[in-house]
């Protein structure tokens, strides 16, 4: 595995005590995977966001239409750690799972589009934010779809 970590910083904090903190910042924005371009109401969305390698490990967050996603929708971090340049560089993945529902005002906008954003940030450098965004459409589940589903499940023709 080859990585290109170009920016390694050294910070010295004064006056309390004297120490060095090396930081390897991510070079690329996070990568969003698993989210489709179109969903029907009631579908389940499983999205994954993976950060670039960095030191220290990034803090990651999901946003739905610019509102921070509830922690109940998130899975624990998955991490991959490699040793490079004398640092333990960490790549993190954060998965989100939710049911697409047009009745939830914060989820679906008036246009039927949803914006999902993943943010990766190094705690020691709060102004350094890497983000990726993905938008998808939500189609209402019309009564005709329900009739077809009911017909297959009930054995009756509607």
Task: Report on the architecture of this protein.
This protein has 158 residues and is mainly β. It has a single domain (24-154), classed as Immunoglobulins (Immunoglobulin-like, Sandwich). It has one helix spanning 143-154, and strands at 8-12, 20-24, 31-33, 38-40, 44-50, 59-64, 67-68, 78-84, 87-99, 113-121, 129-139. The strands form three sheets. It has a five-stranded mixed sheet, with no helix packed on it. Strand 1 (8-12) and strand 2 form a beta hairpin. The chain is elongated, with a radius of gyration of 21 Å. The model is unreliable at 16-20 (pLDDT under 50).
Keywords:
158 residues, mainly beta, Immunoglobulin-like, 5-stranded mixed sheet, 4-stranded antiparallel sheet, 1 helix, 11 strands, 8% helix
CATH architecture: Sandwich
At the first level of CATH, the class is Mainly Beta
Profile the largest sheet: 5 strands, mixed
Predict the CATH topology: Immunoglobulin-like
- Report, as a whole number of angstroms, the end-to-end distance: 57 Å
Tell me the count of domains.
Answer: 1
Give the helix/strand class: mainly beta
Calculate Rg over CA atoms.
Answer: 21 Å
Number of helices: 1
Which whole number gives the mean pLDDT? 81
Estimate the strand proportion: 35-45%
- CATH homologous superfamily heading: Immunoglobulins
In total, how many beta strands? 11
- Residue stretches low in confidence (pLDDT < 50, at least 5 long) are 16-20
- General form: elongated
| Strands in their spatial order, largest beta sheet | 4-11-10-6-7
Order of helices and strands: EEEEEEEEEEEH
């Amino acid at each position: 595995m080859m990585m290109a970590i170009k920016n390694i910083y050294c910070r010295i904090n004064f006056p309390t005590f004297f120490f060095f903190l090396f930081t390897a910042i991510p070079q690329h924005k996070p990568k969003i995977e698993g989210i489709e371009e179109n969903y029907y109401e009631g579908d389940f969305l499983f999205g994954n966001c993976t950060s670039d390698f960095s030191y220290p490990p990034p803090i990651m967050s999901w946003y739905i239409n610019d509102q921070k996603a509830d922690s109940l929708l998130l899975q624990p971090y998955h991490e991959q750690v490699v040793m490079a340049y004398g640092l333990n560089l960490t790549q993190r993945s954060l998965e989100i799972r939710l049911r697409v529902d047009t009745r939830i005002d914060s989820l679906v906008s008036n246009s039927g589009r949803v914006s999902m954003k993943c943010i990766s940030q190094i705690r020691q450098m709060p102004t350094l934010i890497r983000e990726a965004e993905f938008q998808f459409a939500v189609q209402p589940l019309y009564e005709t779809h329900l009739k077809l589903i009911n017909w297959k499940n009930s054995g009756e023709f509607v």
